[in-house]
Amino acid sequence: MSIWDVFSHKKGKIFLNDTGDSSCEGYYKVKDDISLMKELKLNHYRFSISWPRILPTGIKSDHVNEKGIKYYDDLINLLVENKITPIVTLYHWDLPQVLQEKYGGWQNISMVNYFNDFANLCFERFGNRVKYWITFNNPWSVAVEGYETGEHAPGLKLKGTGAYRAAHHIIKAHAKVWHTYDTQWRNKQKGLVGISLSGDWGEPVDITNQKDIEAAERYVQFYLGWFATPVFHGDYPQVMKDYIGRKSAQQGLGSSRLPTFSSQEKSYIKGTCDFLGIGHFTTRYVTQKNYPSSRGTTYFTDRDLAELVDPRWPDPGSEWLYSVPWGFRRLLNFVKTQYGNPMIYVTENGVSEKMMCTELCDDWRIQYFKDYINEMLKAIKDGVNVKGYTAWSLLDKFEWDEGYSERFGLYYVDFRNKNKPRYPKASVQYYKRIISSNGFPNQREVENWKRKATETCSSSNQLLAAG
To answer: SS3 letters for 132-182?
Structure first.
């Protein structure tokens, strides 16, 4: 069991009380899904290895599940045979439940060693074929939604402290795994180890107002910078130390709620990144807003800012996900400037739909990919060192606390059918063209297959409606 197995079975935690028990059944459909990747002409595929599937209690000395290892072996071998580069994430939120119950999960420093043992086992078993490793996917969500708001597993609401402590241990765990690879495996395996951070862009509401400019910068520093600055520079962003320190003092606390790294730890953590993974979806306007400490403090009030959206921004899917392509270029340039132009892989970028209907003509997704990829190309022209791009995501799936209500997939999955059949949305054709021509198809071609897609859609819609 992982913390998500347990969390999703608690009533009221997931939209419509859905669980991830069956989802896409990717476990049984490896061959089918790799043929979808071939159809898309993908040259890499990013997936995660489930810690509890390989180490059921989370602890290597307890038991290694060889069946779990075999599943990933088969997947990796098939990818390699089909010339699809595997990019592997070691932690995509599914902490072994035993570690949560026994130790309190990421609130506990002991996770650092347990996670390192798990990662080391993965390097040992898969590292001869896997050359791209991501330690953590979007640790911001793990910390804030897992231990501050409680919207995600394990569902704890340790306001004002939980997120900072979890993040502190995650950063240490990341650094330890990087060093393990660096000292024990790099010479033999010649791979790279990075981390994948999510970041929305924050744009000042009023670009002539110094307070708004600072608030927008603070928004990005409290989001992406919280993890990126330690990994590249060895310590938390100064603005986080200042704000959280000041608010802690106002509360009458003897020390800051933001933990500190010793000078030894700072030098150990600094530079533990061969590439930076960026997950990016949307942008916010940001303005200054003061939250007095007397009213209780949280990660959100520590920042002293308010987030706004422009009602004209398109939002076809998730309520938080507005399409604001220009924010992507600005975020990429921010990374270049702040962290010394690191090698960047875009590890997640995409848009969902919330419609109940089985509409496969997802022209808004085509538009989203076109606009966002175009802004990424402009960033590359600006000199940002972007090495690769990954669309989010191949299939519709269990979308955390949103259950099955939001669909990010290029392929539609019919969850009501026990075989979980996949149907290509129109965006499949578009994305496939971008990959094969390494550029955008011309407009006439687009119109042409939009017509075709509409015909395909109406026929598969009838199929789905009948089903």
So the answer is: EEEEEECHHHHHHHHHCCCCCCCCCCCCCCHHHHHHHHHHHHHHHHHHHHH
Q: Could you tell me the CA-to-CA distances from 432 to 155, 167, 269, 404 in Å, in that order? A: 39, 37, 39, 25
Say which of 203, 307, 348, 406 is annotated catalytic. Answer: 348
- Strands 85-91, 132-137: pairing is parallel
Ramachandran assignment for 326, one of left (phi > 0), alpha (psi -120 to 50 degrees), beta (any other): alpha
Residue 376: name the closest of 361, 391, 363, 395 by CA. Answer: 391
Cis peptide before 259 (omega within 30 of 0): no
66 is catalytic: no
Quickly list H helices, 185-262. Answer: 186-189, 210-220, 226-233, 238-250
pLDDT tens per residue across span 225-279? 999 999 999 999 999 999 999 999 999 999 999 999 999 999 999 999 999 999 9
Question: In this structure, what token pair is assigned to residue 258?
Answer: 């933001």
| Max Cα-Cα span within the chain | 67
How far apart CA 53 and CA 266 sit, in angstroms, is 33
pLDDT at 156 over 60: yes
The pairing of beta strand 411-413 with beta strand 422-424: antiparallel
3-state DSSP assignment of residue 13: coil
DSSP letter string, 386-397: EEEE--S-SB--
- Looking up tokens 């017509």 gives 451
| Residues 457, 275: Cα–Cα separation, whole Å | 39
Whole-prediction pTM: 0.96
Cα–Cα distance, 99 to 58 (Å, whole number): 6
- Per-residue pLDDT tens digits for 370-385: 999 999 999 999 999 9
Beta-strand relationship, 201-204 and 192-198: unpaired
Query: How many alpha carbons fall within 13 Å on the CB side of residue 419?
Result: 5
Distance CA 110, CA 98 (A): 13
Q: What are phi and psi of 335, to 5 degrees?
A: -60, -45
pLDDT in tens, 164-206: 999 999 999 999 999 999 999 999 999 999 999 999 999 999 9
